[in-house]
Structures are given as structure tokens and as C-alpha cells.
Amino acid sequence: MAPESPPKLRSRRMQIALMVFWRGLFLGVFLIGLLCVFHPVIRDYLRGIFHPPFRTILSSATGPYLPEFPISRVLKVRTHEGLFVEVYGQNEGEARPLIDRIRLPDRRDAFFSFSGRTSNLFLHDVSGDGVPEIIAPSFDDDLIAHLNVFRLNQGSQKLENVPGQPIR
């Protein structure tokens, strides 16, 4: 018996149709990918799916930070949005009221040795006015260390950056 010749797999028209289909599919996936990258709402939605929101307390400091709140608490927190410093007031029943929250300009947490103690959050009177400032060290993207110094404005109850304060 003579060997059979392989059947003709596809006609030329079918090959062109498949090639157009696959190119169109590739182009469609590519355009959807570009849309996901450049459209901020879609990008944030997809980021939320793959990187869910989280909140981690990195450090806390408790003490008489405010005259109105003799037992106030300061927290350094990492969330999916970045590093934050939060100031809480005195206990009101079971909860502490959040007074203010400020985002640190850097994304990486850092530790600092200060007065023989190593921590990533300090309360210390930097300016010499009798009110302790919040010192929160951090690293920028180039791993350059920064000391972020904040003061709570007594009038507005908002945290303010204290630029260029020497630490004594």
C-alpha cells in the first residue's frame, strides 16, 4: 500500500484568517494593558486587587505630649499608601481620638540612635520651647537618611513640619 499523502491542513484563506485573528487578539490585549497602565482609576483598582490595603504599626510613643491630653500616644504607621505619623489623644472610653495624621515624604522606615536609645520614633523638645516635637527617621529611595521633625500646632491641632531644627 502506498503511503498516503498528508491531508491539506488549511487553505490559504484559512491561514490568513487565523493570522489576522491572532494579531488582532495580541493588539487588543496590548491596548487593554496600556489602558490599565495609563488610566489612574483602573490602575488603582487593579493595584487594590493584587496589593490589598494593610496597616502596620511600626512604633509608638506614649507620654504627656499635649497639655489637653496628658496621656497622648504617637504612632508611626506603614500602610499601602506609605509611612504616616499619627497623634492620638486621651482615652475616651475604649477608643483614643485621632488628633492628626501626616504622611512622611519617604517610603522606607529607619532607626536612629538618640540619647543612648535606638528607635524609629522619638518625642523630644528640639526647639527648646518646652513642647516635645515628634522625630521620625526615614530613608528616601536612594537610601539617604532623613530626620522628619513635626510639631502639633496647638491652635489648629494639626501636625506641622519643623524644617532645619538642630537636635540638642
Short description:
The protein has 168 residues and is of the alpha+beta class.
Classify the secondary structure makeup into a structural class. Answer: alpha+beta
Q: Spans of 5+ residues with little confidence (pLDDT < 50)?
A: none
Whole-number radius of gyration? 29 Å
Order of helices and strands: HHEEEEEEEEEEE
Helix content: 10-25%
Features:
2 domains; single chain; alpha+beta; 4-stranded antiparallel beta sheet; 11 strands; 5-stranded antiparallel beta sheet; elongated; 168 residues
Explain this structure to me?
- The chain is elongated.
- By secondary structure, it is α+β, with helices and mostly antiparallel strands.
- The longest helix has 27 residues, at about 10-40.
- The chain has two helices and eleven strands, in the order H-H-E-E-E-E-E-E-E-E-E-E-E.
- The chain has two domains: about 10-50; about 55-160, no CATH class.
- The chain starts with 11 loop residues before the first helix and ends in a 7-residue tail after the last strand.
